[in-house]
Amino acid sequence: MKASRAIGWILLIGAAALLPILFKGAYVHHVLVMCLIFGFSALGLNLIFGFAGQAAFGLPAFFALGGYISALLSIRLGLPFWVALPSTMVIAAMFGFLIGYPCLHLRGIYFGITTMAFAQILYYIASNWISLTRGPMGLVGVPVPRIHLGSFDYEFETGFKYYYLVLAAIVVTVWLFSRLMKTPLGRAFVAIRENEDLASSIGIHPFWIKMIAFMLACTITAIGGSFYAHFSRFMSPNEFQWYYIGLTFIMVITGGMGTVMGPVIGAVIFTVLPEVFRAIEQYRNILTGTLLILVVIFFPEGIMGLVNRRLERKKAVSSQPPGRGGEVDPV
Amino acid sequence: MLLQTTDLTIRFGGLAAVKGVNLRVHRGEILGLIGPNGAGKTTLFNLLTGFLKPSSGTIHFEGEEITGWAPSKIAAVGICRTFQLTSVFPALSVWENVRTATYVWTRHRLLGGIRGRAAPVEDSVVEEETNRILAFSGLDANRDSLARNLSYGDQRRLGIAIALAARSRVLLLDEPAAGMNPEEKRGLMQTINDIRSQGVTVVLIEHHMKLVMGVCHRVVVLAQGKVIAEGSPAEVSRNPHVIEAYLGQEVEIA
């Protein structure tokens, strides 16, 4: 069981690594990179929404926030990408704490709406603090990641190269993420989603555990933003808009809430689809919306939820191995 | 004295749901908490476990004052409860339900090494304990079922298993027999006795008198937020105040 899972992972990563070689062209590579970048947004939202059960409507704004932080750090302070990215993660976590502290005192939908209010505030700051962000004109000339060691000089300036950089990052993130979900902390997230009162009656402090989940989610989302800024080399307040918030939710719900891989798959689908439908621009949103409705009706647990259920059924038929049963693997 | 309340009172607006309750729970006993609907039994549980903060009065556990503590902190010192409605994690398997409930004594695994706290707990130890509790609760056969698919009686048993996995020292059971058939009720009485013989003190809210009389060492009767009687099951069932509280006072009509 364990070996087959490892083989599955290797095959998946191998297939992902082959994609830009099989499908050539700068435009295709650009779309592939965007799939992975949005994958981070979806992973972050899935942590707080899918696992910890908190509908943080404002969370996708941390994508734009992460992009701005990273862009500002490299443009204004001249920090290289390799310093800007981890700094962005730390700063995003701090923002997560500041926004999470008031919001997490509220439960359910009230929490969600309050985070969205903060997302709007961030949008207005980005649009109006002209001296820092250049407002709607946006930040231009965000530097490309570059490895410069003595005579060795390598730039991730093409979509092809950038793809492998982001792929490596997302593989590590997903791996850490799936490990985290098997620790007591990861189980505490799920416990709060399932029954918050019961969780506190077995010693889980809902406020602080939700805070950890929210800060982690902010950090993961901001990683995507940072990669985005250094890839598109441009940040504007546009990325704070509702369209991206809605899209991220659609990715997570379609892919499968509370599964590790689902959101990444959702991100791929909903990054590629708008591109495919680009020719029929005016009908694009109608088609995306229809797809979402169909998913919710026919497989409410999302694509990975459906796959997992199929696997479970197969496992049940081919007599189950003894020992540690009952552990539904959230792959 | 394991758990003690002094003059415990909570008011909701003008209504005192619990007033001046002095409850004493002795180590190793099974204490029944009975009374008509609306007597304040569940409110008293909510106060003991920190879900409600008392308007006045104190709660002591092993001599330490725990009044006003957060529920998770109270759970961490060993006071756990079940809930009347859902006392399980519905979308998780039975095995995961119990495994999740080991949180309080396994959580230092991640940071234990760094902060020099309690030694990390081995995975195998946690799994063994999970399996032991499942076997003890008679839920072994259902270990892979989702909690929400269990029968009502099994969900109650899982609720108790969860509280045990959290290493409770005082277990507060809120109507554990509700929705159980006679056979399941007999099994529950056995389970409660077994829990006690493991050294866990049990406080029990229950309407099913046969169960209360059969299993409890001592019974406390609550009516309109006050303790109106206390004693052995036999004493309490003969007490005129108790009969009056349950059946109502005879009113003379002129």
Structural commentary:
The complex is a heterodimer of chains A (331) and B (254). By secondary structure, chain A is mainly α. Chain A has one domain: Orthogonal Bundle (ABC transporter involved in vitamin B12 uptake, BtuC), CATH 1.10.3470. Chain A is 72% helix and 4% strand. In chain A, the strands form two sheets. Chain A has a two-stranded antiparallel ribbon with strand order 1-4. Chain B is globular, with a radius of gyration of 19 Å. In chain B, the strands form two sheets. A six-stranded mixed β-sheet of chain B has the order 7-8-9-4-10-11, sandwiched between helices. In chain B, strands 1, 2, 3, 5 and 6 form a five-stranded antiparallel β-sheet that branches. Chain B has one domain (3-247): P-loop containing nucleotide triphosphate hydrolases (Rossmann fold, 3-Layer(aba) Sandwich), CATH 3.40.50. Chain B has 254 residues and is an alpha/beta fold. In chain B, a hairpin with a 2-residue loop joins strand 10 and strand 11 (226-231). The A-B interface holds A 183-185, 187-188, 190-191, 194-195, 197-198, 200-206, 320, 324-328 and B 49, 51, 70-73, 75-76, 80-81, 83, 86-96, 99-104, 106-107, 109-110, 127, 143-144, 162-163, 165-166.
